[in-house]
């Protein structure tokens, strides 16, 4: 029995190869399936099973494409009501993979269709040796039950019962979850990517709560906000995602064609360059989402999924990386990238915008000076509550789409986050809404703290903490 983990940074997604001597299963596959094909080939294994623990909300799964390429069968929860060809599973069902027995444990709560795959290596014994928990149980956490409007308490109560079943597995049983620290599918996941039932029973806060009502309160309070793409991805995965070969081919697009596309109103520009470059010169109306930050999550959160997308990037390789990440969150309408980048746009004589970048020293002077400004902190509320600049108003970056009216657009508006990535997103959103004098506090609260102007933010400095908060 072989278990090989694959971890996707940013969305903090873990998928697995469960292998025997000649065949293997892929569990909770990502959409970019090449890593599984290569690993299976290198190990001399044939992919025969594709196992989904639930309908994932935070990413588009690769089950359809993997099945098409390999001929493997897809196995998915019966309660998921999946629309594609698959083998529907429920508690009491089991599978055989060479000497391994895979039993199904229904564990609804994070979503109504969650289940776990419990594996016994019969070549060594009957006792379960591993459990692939999907989003039911994480290292140090459990799946959030609040993704379905109006059902949070009901699903939390169901999760309480589901975790009781999981706790009955042997203490030595290895736990392989679908996410780790940085995912928005939970609240307090550990940086360690695997665990055991015994360790989680001893240290996981969710498993230590014995009272149902206390559990429900804990699992429905102070949860991070769920990005917009969560509900979209669930339905995409239920219907069966399009295979990537059928999606639009990304091509270089000339400056004139980009200009023409923008005039139609059906196209948006996503500028993926570093926020300093965006600040220097950008196409007016572009979204600034630095690919060096938590790109996929924030793109899925704020980019309109119905619009065609043209990228502004440094080179074609950067565009390919962005294309991969955008497709992970169901943004499939990437039609091209600006040929020659912003240099070609500039020499073509077209209009550009800019966002001034100010240092921490300059920001400190501005915040203490006589000139009236908007100082908007676009970090998550937990970060803002931990430490912030006096006088700053907290509007998390995605809320600027609708709450920009709380700011006086006639004033210079300084946007600050942890380092400058989210602030640049915020600056681009404000510019789209008519704010003319927008300034990015480059270096963010990290730089402001380093300069000695503020206490250290305990959230920002966690080396492996909840990185959904961005950089």
Give the helix proportion (percent range): 25-40%
Ends apart, CA distance between termini: 39 Å
The CATH class of the largest domain, by name, is Alpha Beta
Work out the strand percent.
15-25%
**Looking at CATH, which topology of the largest domain would you report?**
Metallo-beta-lactamase, Chain A
Query: Structural class, judged by helices and strands?
Result: alpha/beta
Number of strands: 24
The CATH superfamily of the largest domain turns out to be Ribonuclease Z/Hydroxyacylglutathione hydrolase-like
Largest sheet: 6 strands, mixed
Shape: globular
Q: Which architecture of the largest domain per CATH?
A: 4-Layer Sandwich
Mean pLDDT across every amino acid position: 95
Number of domains: 3
- The strands making up the biggest β-sheet line up spatially as 1-2-3-4-5-6
Number of helices: 17
- What gyration radius follows from the Cα positions, in whole Å? 24 Å
Low-pLDDT stretches are 463-471
Characterise this structure.
The chain has 471 residues and is an alpha/beta fold. The chain has three domains: 2-238, 4-Layer Sandwich (Metallo-beta-lactamase, Chain A), CATH 3.60.15; 247-347, 3-Layer(aba) Sandwich (Oxidized Rhodanese, domain 1); 356-469, Oxidized Rhodanese, domain 1 (3-Layer(aba) Sandwich), CATH 3.40.250.10. It is built from 17 helices and 24 strands. Strands 1-2-3-4-5-6 form a six-stranded mixed sheet, with helices on one face. It has a six-stranded mixed sheet with strand order 7-8-9-10-13-14. Strands 15-19-18-16-17 form a five-stranded parallel sheet, with helices on both faces. Strand 9 and strand 10 form a beta hairpin. Helix 13 crosses helix 17 (444-450). The longest helix is centred in the middle third of the chain and has 16 residues, at 152-167. The radius of gyration is 24 Å and the shape is globular.
């Amino acid at each position: 029995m072989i278990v090989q983990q694959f971890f996707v940074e940013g969305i903090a997604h873990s998928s697995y190869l469960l292998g025997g001597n000649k065949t293997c299963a892929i569990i909770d596959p990502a959409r970019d399936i090449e890593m599984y094909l290569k690993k299976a080939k290198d190990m001399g294994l044939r992919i025969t099973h594709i196992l989904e623990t639930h309908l994932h909300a935070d990413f588009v799964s690769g089950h359809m494409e993997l099945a098409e390429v390999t001929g493997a069968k897809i196995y998915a929860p019966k309660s998921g009501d999946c629309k594609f060809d698959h083998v529907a599973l429920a508690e009491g069902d089991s599978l055989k993979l060479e000497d391994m027995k895979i039993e199904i444990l229904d564990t609804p709560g994070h979503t109504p269709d969650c289940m776990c795959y419990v594996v016994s290596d019969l070549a060594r014994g009957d006792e379960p040796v591993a459990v692939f928990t999907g989003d039911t149980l994480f290292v140090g956490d459990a799946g959030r039950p609040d993704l379905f409007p109006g059902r949070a308490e009901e699903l939390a109560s169901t999760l309480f019962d589901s975790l009781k079943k999981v706790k009955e597995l042997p203490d030595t049983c290895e736990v392989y979850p679908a996410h780790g620290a940085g995912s928005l599918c939970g609240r307090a996941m550990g940086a360690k990517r695997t665990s055991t039932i015994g360790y989680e029973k001893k240290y996981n806060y969710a498993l230590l709560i014995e009272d149902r009502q206390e559990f429900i309160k804990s699992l429905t309070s102070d949860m991070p906000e769920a990005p917009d793409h969560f509900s979209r991805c669930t339905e995409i995965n239920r219907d069966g995602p399009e295979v990537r070969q059928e999606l639009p081919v990304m091509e270089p697009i000339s400056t004139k064609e980009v200009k023409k596309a923008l005039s139609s109103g059906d196209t948006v520009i996503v500028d993926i360059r570093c926020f300093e470059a965006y600040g220097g010169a950008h196409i007016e109306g572009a979204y600034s989402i630095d690919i060096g930050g938590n790109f996929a999550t924030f793109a899925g959160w704020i980019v309109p999924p119905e619009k065609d997308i043209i990228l502004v990037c440094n080179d074609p390789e950067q565009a390919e990386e962005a294309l991969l990440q955008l497709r992970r969150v169901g943004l499939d309408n990437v039609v091209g990238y600006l040929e020659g980048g912003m240099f070609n746009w500039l020499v073509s004589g077209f209009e550009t915008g800019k966002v001034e970048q100010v240092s921490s020293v300059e920001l400190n002077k501005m915040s203490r000076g006589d000139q009236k400004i908007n100082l908007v902190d676009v970090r998550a509320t937990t970060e803002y509550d931990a430490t912030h600049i006096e006088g700053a108003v907290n509007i998390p970056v995605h809320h600027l789409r609708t709450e920009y009216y709380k700011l006086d657009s006639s004033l210079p508006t300084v946007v600050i986050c942890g380092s400058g990535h989210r602030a640049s997103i915020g600056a681009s959103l404000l510019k789209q809404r008519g704010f003319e004098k927008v300034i990015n506090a480059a270096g963010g609260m990290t730089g402001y703290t380093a300069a000695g102007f503020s206490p250290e933010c305990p959230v920002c400095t966690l080396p492996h903490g909840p990185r959904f908060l961005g950089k």
